[in-house]
């Protein structure tokens, strides 16, 4: 089981293409399924201990993985049962079922087990699961020699097959019931019911403890709301080489200061204040706690820290060529003064982090015309206002916005997506929901400003800022406020 940090993320079509490329070299689908099922079995065995396991198998290759896993688990000495939704519809799944020597129960009547493994549907699910399953046989399954491969009642030891009682079975209901009754619920590749690429639920699945992604991570594992249902995510290697421009965010390499460091070499951040002074203060504090050597706040500011260098806003103060990044937007306001400050900031030729109100005062063409490195940090409302609404998935939207503006786009939320104009994407794994409190976005802007001023390239700076922010939130526990979060950036940085 491989941890997900830094791993490539593939769509369903890209994963199929990667599998096809391996198959073109002479490896069979059955071999790939065997590898997948074997890896699943070993992972489940380790997690289940001596507890009994129930594997739910669907009609496609996800179900095929389930049959292989059942066979290998039995060979490993586990107590394992199999319940099927319907007969297999692929040759590989049929062959896998034929290899399972035990009985096959009808999903409609299967009794729960302490460990539930969902191998009903994977990347092939393209439409909602009906409350009732059209595939559930209400007559006994086909006999040997049927077109779909080995018939279920020809499988050695499968006399227990019983057709669904009333001819109909609610797949979703059964999945929920059996999962809720289990103490450990594991989804194979993805929880059945979720769409692989969009982050949406076609049908709402239960919440799993663990999802074992096969061969590569998919958007479903990181985009909300889908990611909520996956629980912990681990990757299983099935020997399919994969690459992608989309990767899971990983911890950054941030060197501590060396003996030749001084405050300016560590990076000078300018934060421009506006009508809501506290927001700029938070961004400034975050920049300091994320490791900037010098932070100056231009405009009105109230409280500590004393290390923050305050100055009146002026073109002269902005012209300081030691400034490595300017942060503008938190608490800026949208009045005439805000517009004047924004115009001056854009004209100052420093790398920019544009957040909050700055995003409300700009349009994509004006951002595109900028010649300095730019990082945009919109939440969903700011994103819609700047780029318009769309039904596209969050990765596509962030990528399009980056290509349109030439800027790095940090599309925030519980599933932050960072996109570069060249198509590279970094996906942040689920951060603390306690981040949903005022001012945490200001903290993020400051942290990213510190990374940009330290000399990281814009994508790396945005990624490092988001990582530090997520780690600071994790370390802050419940009910923190943005001030606590800014302070916790220090220990997040120390953890590297
Ligand atoms: N390819 C490979 O080499 C490898 C693939 N691997 C594994 O394969 C998985 C993908 O397999 P898959 O493509 O067979 O799709 P899967 O997710 O099992 O389901 C498709 C089936 O469900 C049916 N169906 C769809 N919607 C439905 C609905 N609402 N209600 C009812 N039925 C519905 C659909 O029917 P159809 O749409 O054709 O009518 C079709 O029969 C992947 O996640 C991984 O686990 C690994 O073994 C490694 C090697
Ligand atoms: N439920 C959540 N789970 C994880 N992160 C969240 C959640 N809600 C918000 N966030 C994060 O918290 C921050 C909120 O930013 P923003 O909405 O700009 O707040 P503010 O404007 O008050 O500073 C973003 O970094 C966002 O990604
Ligand atoms: K599944």
TrEMBL record:
Gene coding for it: nnrE
Keyword Mitochondrion belongs to the record: no
Record keyword Nucleotide-binding present: yes
Origin species: Sphingomonas aerolata
Protein family (similarity comment): Belongs to the NnrD/CARKD family. In the C-terminal section; belongs to the NnrD/CARKD family.
UniProt-listed Enzyme Commission number(s): 4.2.1.136, 5.1.99.6
SUPFAM superfamilies reported in the protein's UniProt record: Ribokinase-like, YjeF N-terminal domain-like
Alphabetical UniProt keywords: ATP-binding, Isomerase, Kinase, Lyase, Metal-binding, Multifunctional enzyme, NAD, NADP, Nucleotide-binding, Potassium, Transferase
Protein name: Bifunctional NAD(P)H-hydrate repair enzyme
Amino-acid positions noted as binding AMP in the UniProt annotation, renumbered to this chain: 412-416, 441
Positions with a binding annotation for K(+): 62, 118, 192
Subunit details: Homotetramer.
A GO MF term: metal ion binding
GO biological process terms held by the UniProt record: metabolite repair; nicotinamide nucleotide metabolic process
Functional note: Catalyzes the epimerization of the S- and R-forms of NAD(P)HX, a damaged form of NAD(P)H that is a result of enzymatic or heat-dependent hydration. This is a prerequisite for the S-specific NAD(P)H-hydrate dehydratase to allow the repair of both epimers of NAD(P)HX.
InterPro entries, per the entry: Carbohydrate_kinase_pred_CS (IPR017953), CARKD (IPR000631), Nnr (IPR030677), Ribokinase-like (IPR029056), YjeF_N_dom (IPR004443), YjeF_N_dom_sf (IPR036652)
Domain YjeF C-terminal, chain residue ranges per copy: 246-496
Pfam family, any one: YjeF_N
Annotated binding of (6S)-NADPHX, by residue: 61-65, 122-128, 189, 279, 331, 379, 442
């Amino acid at each position: 089981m491989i941890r997900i940090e830094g791993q490539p993320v593939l769509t369903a079509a890209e994963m199929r293409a990667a599998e096809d490329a391996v198959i073109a070299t002479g490896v069979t689908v059955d071999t790939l399924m065997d590898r997948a099922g074997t890896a699943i079995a070993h992972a489940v065995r380790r997690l289940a201990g001596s507890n009994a396991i129930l594997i739910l198998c669907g009609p496609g290759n996800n179900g095929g993985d389930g049959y292989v896993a059942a066979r290998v688990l039995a060979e490993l000495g586990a107590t394992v049962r199999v319940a099927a939704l319907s007969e297999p519809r692929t040759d590989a799944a049929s062959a896998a079922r034929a290899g399972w020597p035990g009985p096959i129960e009808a999903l409609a009547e299967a009794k729960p087990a302490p460990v539930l493994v969902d191998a009903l549907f994977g990347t092939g699910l393209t439409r909602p699961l009906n409350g009732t399953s059209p595939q559930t046989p209400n007559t006994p399954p086909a006999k040997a020699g049927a077109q779909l491969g080995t018939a279920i009642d020809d499988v050695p030891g499968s006399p227990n097959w019983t057709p669904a009682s009333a001819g109909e079975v609610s797949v979703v209901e059964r999945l929920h019931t059996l999962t809720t009754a289990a103490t450990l619920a594991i989804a194979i590749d993805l929880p059945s019911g979720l769409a692989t690429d969009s982050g949406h639920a076609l049908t709402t699945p239960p919440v799993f403890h663990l999802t074992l992604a096969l061969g590569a991570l998919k958007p479903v594992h990181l985009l909300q709301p889908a990611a909520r249902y996956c629980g912990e995510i681990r990757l299983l290697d099935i020997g399919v080489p994969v690459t992608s421009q989309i990767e899971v965010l990983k911890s950054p390499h941030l060197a501590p200061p060396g003996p030749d460091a001084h405050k300016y070499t560590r990076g000078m951040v300018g934060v421009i204040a506006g009508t809501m002074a506290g927001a700029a203060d938070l961004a400034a504090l975050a920049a300091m706690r994320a490791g900037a050597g010098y932070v100056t706040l231009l405009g009105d500011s109230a409280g500590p820290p004393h290390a923050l260098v305050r100055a009146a806003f002026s073109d002269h103060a902005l012209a300081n060529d030691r400034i490595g990044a300017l942060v503008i937007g938190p608490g800026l306001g949208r009045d005439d003064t805000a517009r004047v400050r924004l115009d001056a900031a854009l004209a100052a030729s420093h790398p920019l982090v544009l957040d909050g109100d700055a995003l409300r005062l700009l349009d994509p063409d004006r951002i595109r015309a900028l010649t300095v490195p730019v990082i945009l940090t919109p939440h969903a409302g700011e994103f819609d206002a700047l780029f318009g609404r769309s039904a596209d998935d969050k990765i596509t939207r962030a990528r399009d916005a980056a290509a349109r503006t030439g800027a790095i786009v940090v599309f925030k939320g519980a599933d932050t997506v960072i996109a570069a104009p060249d198509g590279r994407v970094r996906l942040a794994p689920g951060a603390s929901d306690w981040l949903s409190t005022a001012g945490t976005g200001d903290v993020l802007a400051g942290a990213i400003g510190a990374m940009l001023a330290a000399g990281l390239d814009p994508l790396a700076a945005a990624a490092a800022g988001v990582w530090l922010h997520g780690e600071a939130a994790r370390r802050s526990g419940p009910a923190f406020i943005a001030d606590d979060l800014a302070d916790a950036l220090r220990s997040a940085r120390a953890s590297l």
